[in-house]
Amino acid sequence: MIRRKLIAAALLAALPLCAIGAETSHPELPPTDAAVRVLRDFPPVQAAGHLLRAQEANRDKLVAGPHEWNLRLTRQQREVPSNPTQRYPEWDASLERAVRLPGKGALDASLGAAGVAFAELGQGDALHEASRLLLTHWFEWLRQKEALSQCQAQVRLLERQSRSVQRRVELGDASRIEAAQSGAALAQAAAQLAQAKAREAASRIELSRRFPGLPLPENTPDTLPGQAEGRPESWREAILAHNHELGMARAESLRARLEAQRSDKERMPDPTIGLRMGRERGGEEHVAGLTLSFPLPGAARDATGRIALAQADAATAREAAILRKVEAEAEALEQNVRAQHAAWLDSKEAAERQGEAADMMARAYTLGEGSLADMLMARRLAFEARLSAQLARLTALEYQDRLLLDAHKLWPLDMND
Fold first, then answer.
1. How many beta carbons lie within 10 A of that of residue 159, not counting itself?
2. Which pTM value belongs to this model?
3. In CATH, which of 3.40.50.150, 2.40.30.60, 1.20.1260.10, 1.20.1600.10 is domain 2-67+101-267+326-406?
4. Residue ranges of the domains in the chain?
5. 207, 280, 288, 321: which has the fewest Cβ within 10 Å?
6. What phi, psi does 271 have (nearest 5°)?
7. What is the tens place of the pLDDT at every residue in 126-138?
8. Comparing 281 with 177, which gets the higher pLDDT?
9. CA distance 155 to 139
10. How many CA atoms lie within 13 A of 219 on its CB side?
11. What is the DSSP string of 300-365?
């Protein structure tokens, strides 16, 4: 039973991502091969690989056992008090080794396999956390890049507007107050553009430093978010089935129970057997025999067993706590995907309506039926609505991709590929 559980845990750690995610196109993300490359080269992922190799070596150590052969040599001189001239060289040699009692070797092998399974899950968890970090910084950069693009478009629009107003002032069709208003709006947009450039540069540097070699697109992808298809329970079940944190908690709980069983076995110490050979009285007597020794167990062994049992209970409690945490996070994520999609649709509609209002105000001003201040306010509101809609689109895409990532339907990240 224990071996079957260990094999299942190891297979869970090695499962590749679902083929649906690998086949689905995601133009809002970096190319799949580039993303996989930088994620596997991420230092915490490399560190998890080293820890896995350490656990593999520890497994071999546990299978081999803690006991080794011990060679003991004795050289002595015997003197006869009644005849001081009689001296006999003597020697003694013994070869000894402790022997694991039945059942201990199997538990040691199970402990080694449990450690490897835990490390494999740890490697998967490191890869998953690196993927989450990549998504976070990638979409942060896309939002800043989109904000920069919108600010650039707004500055170009207000530059044309400012030139038009200046021309009208020269022709006497507009007042200098309107020219000042137009110039102030342009200066304000230019200041926003400068701030947007700084934020975009900072987020780009952060992304490039954390994930060097990741190609960055020239333009912000115009991918539209999709709805989370299927029953909410199906997404939550998929996330729970592939959650490495929960898998590690279960593997640690299993390993703690094995440790408790092993400590209980250690209440009976391992015996030491040996072969002894010697020569006494200068070779007149030869000695050969077997030796057997048992350590006498004391209170320390009993305390060690109670410690292991308490640690196993603590690991079981931690597993239960992590299960609740992961269930809550999975449900919240699935609901956020739907909420962010709805928010994007509302923002998109608001941006379209505000854009129409700004166009009507511009036509009214051209026909002399509206003021420049009203038109500039309408354009500013339209700009903010467009920017809000674009940012909402990217946020909805981020939550959508995060859901696919947690369900293992985004990137093929099996380390054994």
1. 14
2. 0.83
3. 1.20.1600.10
4. 2-67+101-267+326-406
5. 288
6. -80, 160
7. 999 999 999 999 9
8. 177
9. 24
10. 4
11. HHHHHHHHHHHHHHHHHHHHHHHHHHHHHHHHHHHHHHHHHHHHHHHHHHHHHHHHHHHHHHHHHH
